[in-house]
Known about the structure:
GO terms for molecular function: carbohydrate binding. It comes from Malus baccata (Siberian crab apple). By secondary structure, the protein is mainly beta. It has 2 helices and 17 strands.
Amino acid sequence: MECKGYQFWTQADKQGYFYIKDVRPGNYSLYATVPGFIGDYKYEHDITIEPASEINLANITFEPPRSGPTLWEIGIPDRSAAEFNIPDPYPSLVNRLFTDNYANKFRQYGLWERYGDYYPDHDLIYTVGTDNYKDDWFYAHVTRSRNGTYEATTWQIVFQLEDVWTGDYTLQLALASATYAELQVRFNNQTDAPHFSTGLIGKDNAIARHGIHGLYWLFSVDVPSYRLQQGYNTIYLTQSRNWGPFAGVMYDYIRLEGPPPE
């Protein structure tokens, strides 16, 4: 979110070594991300760069957020929604520069409106263990257009628990993008007050700009065990802001973790 100062970037090699050269003198913070893991690394100290200096940081270790064992997961933690169901464009809006490259399939105008075609009367329901996120998880959680207005939408994740353990579960909710959205989370009762809400977040406009990711968001939601039950459970994800077609989020990765081992 910080863009007022200078930024210098590099990519570590397979052994984790990296080198950043030609950095202007000043005080800096060091951040890192690791593909396949949620969260951000931040070095615990500021780094002061002086002219003609060289700094060796020795070993630095990233410990990604985790509270307990994985019970289920949706998606790939890569800060992108590319692995989800990206629909075909409307025939009248096809950009033929990208029709032969699946990696750029999202670069088509009007894809967000295909949600209403896929789900004209009800919202997405995803059953863990049965559905496949590549086919059954729409790439963007957007509003639905109906009679000239836009409706907020609620997606459901249905899953089973053989037992409910004592302690707090954790819902790791990583977003690849958000645009003037508010994501509310409820458990097993859609009419309850939200157990968690992001509040109003995001203005990266990745949905409107035919992108597949924008600014990354990670929310670790504590879930007391009394909110869950043995057997079938449902998580309700409501994108409650309905000001227009581009209000929405793109999910990166969702994971439910059990309570920490004793």
